[in-house]
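Section 3.1 - Work completed
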Amino acid sequence: MLLRTLQEYAARAQPAAHVEEAGGWWLRHSPGDAWWVSAVLPHDREDRVALAEEFCAERGCGVRFQITPGVCAEDLDARLDGRGYERGHAMSLQIASTSEVLRHAHADAGAVTTRPADAWLAAWQTVTKRDVSAERDLLSRVEHPSAYAYAEVDGQVVAVGRAVAEQGWAGVFGMATLPHARGQGAARSVLAALASWAAAREANHMYLQMEKANTAAFRMYERTGFREVCTYHYRVRG
């Protein structure tokens, strides 16, 4: 199934430090990384909630399930609600053909490197406010081909993003634009660069995951050829 495949590609593009597979469930733990890196992927119909809770308890972390309609068991969301899990973080999974992204980006492509330079990480950290050391560790675990794109204005890196290619798909991650450069095409330049890199590697389709509440980004991706294929959310208990 496409949805499950893409979410598993995304999990490999944002690899947790510790992953255990229990049937079709992916139990993940990654101290110091963004919260979604440690979310459990309950990708089959079996009930392994107790096992996931035990996995997280052993590591002293809260439990977070990624709930995708059509991928998880139909009653899992209701069962987690009954166990006291709160619903949060409404998300959108979007896809596009790489050629459409290139056609619609309407921007000169930014530059691409195979490793994240200090300036790339500095811009990313300025926007996200997250720990650069933890991000370096996460990126070092990515096994599939990766690209790091950036756009500059007057010699300053003002927008960044990365892509990871797997089986004809390129996932887009880490998109970040400095506040003073927003609305000026910098993010489209980064996206165009990532699409060009994907096309050169015969990754003819692209995907991304984003928070539904980010309306400005939603409009930008829509204008560059992306369309939503599903929404999903998380169930969380501390």
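Second construct:
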Amino acid sequence: MARKLAVVLGGLAAPGRRTFLRAGALSLAALALPWLTRAGDPRLAVARRLRMLHVHTGERIDVTYFEGGALVPAALAEVDRFLRDFRTGDVHAIDPGVLDVVWRVAGDVGRPRETLEIVCGYRSPRTNALLRARGRAVASRSLHLEGRAIDLRVPGVPVARVRDAALALRRGGVGFYPESVFVHVDTGRVRRW
């Protein structure tokens, strides 16, 4: 078999079995690493903690939602309740991917331990319809309806810098609302407005 491989390789000496197996194992590890760290960034394998203040309810949360290489179900349930539709009280599962985006943005603007201000998390269909009826610029198929979007501010950081950090991630949509002083992030397709 080594001779056949040497012929295929144009006369080059075929690697030994151990070399072949080692190369295969390293290739599998290289393929698995981005999956294990969710974005290929080793920083994402560490514990992920968010401190947040909901600007409409005044509620605060300090939660580690990812630890020991896994999501923390009890912490995610707390986040779901915290990011509920504050108008109706409806609770919906929040996509951990959007939490990762918020966590990365906070770190990338130099405020990983700062209490982030949340303007909107989950939005129920009833609230979405109400806001659209009032003439607000609200998408009929907003990712807030799916728990895949968060509107936030990072105290002490210009909103344009927060926008730029979110855009640099290329992990979903980024909306810039300088008049309302917040940035929208979501886990939809990469886009900006």
